[in-house]
Amino acid sequence: MNPTADVAIVGGTLLRLTPAWGGEREHGTVLVRDGRVEAVGDVAVPAGVPVVDATGCLVLPGFVDPHTHLGVHAEGEGWHGADVNEKGEPRGARLRSWDGVDPADRGFADALGAGVTTVAVLPGSGNVIGGQTAALKTWGTTVDDMLVRAPIGVKSALGENPKKASGGPGTRMGVAAALRDAFSAAQRHTPESTDRDAEVLARVLAGELVWQQHAHRADDIATAVRLADEFGYRLVLNHVTEGHLVLDLLRDKQLPAVVGPLLTSRSKPELRNRSMAVPGILAGAGLRVALTTDHPVVPIQLLPVSATLAVKEGLDRDEALRALTVNPARILGIDDRVGSLAPGLDGDVVVWSGDPLEVMSRALHVVVRGRSVYRWDDGGQVARPDGSWVHL
């Protein structure tokens, strides 16, 4: 299968979403050659390049969800589709999420229908250290086709979930002690060592991989910061449900925050202070904020809706679009590949019928690496590798 192609998206209004983007909208063309954006703006379309007419529509980079369990936790399949938590492995840094991904998970097609073209796939939060994480495209026949970068980080959990998992610590102090033990072993790691968990964590300590820390409650967030200060690794907070209660700490550390899922009930004590105002509060404090569905906790097609509701509760509209594109790309360290409409980046482009933050707007046409892979037609169609189309 040739995963890349050429295409020109013409006639639309472009929102580039680059790091320097200030909300500008411009009429122009996005030219993709061999799967990468070649030019954006007033661009002549070379002969023979397929054209997508975006007249009257908005053209944006594909959205990025920085915390999902797509492919490792299939909806409605019970134990058969549950490859998200390796039971009995409280410290499983050597585990790799992408080894468990099923590209046939229906959630990938749902993602395309919402304009989501890149996701981070994380292990679950049942273990203190769940394993390594990967960034994937949401279209492809094998994980190898879909990989953007792997590993990008290591998933760890604080709070309720690792406490109640079998085979792990039963208290918050036990969870923190397990993390200290694991990082202490990584500090002692040598090339001759056979401890593969320590080998991976040594890469975290060296700054090669980010530490993606599940933390809802304010005290767990503070523990995450304390541990990062002790060992010096790059911390990315995930969920951050009570981040507004430790706002001074987060502002002082300038930590990136992956916030969500927002569209949930207060289903456990850690979510007692869940609020859709949190993204706006954190962004207003100068933090880099990204939004997540934590799919399948919230279905991934509701990622734009989550942003809309966050705007309703105070998040700036332009910042909401950044929280779906360039911000998660930068947080994950893949902004050299995705998150913006800029030359050299992957040709992941979405044609929207209107403002993505309006709930009636649709992703009409989705391009991944220059290949048309989704179009709105009678409920949505997704491309097959042989070039045919199948209805959702």
Automatic annotation (TrEMBL):
Every Amidohydrolase domain range: 282-374
InterPro entries (UniProt xref): Amidohydro_3, Metal-dep_hydrolase_composite, Metal_Hydrolase, Metallo-dep_Hydrolase
Pfam families: Amidohydro_3
Gene Ontology molecular function terms on file: hydrolase activity, acting on carbon-nitrogen (but not peptide) bonds
Keywords, in A-Z order: Hydrolase
Name assigned to this protein: Imidazolonepropionase-like amidohydrolase
Species this protein is from: Kineococcus rhizosphaerae
Lineage, opening ranks: Bacteria, Bacillati, Actinomycetota, Actinomycetes, Kineosporiales
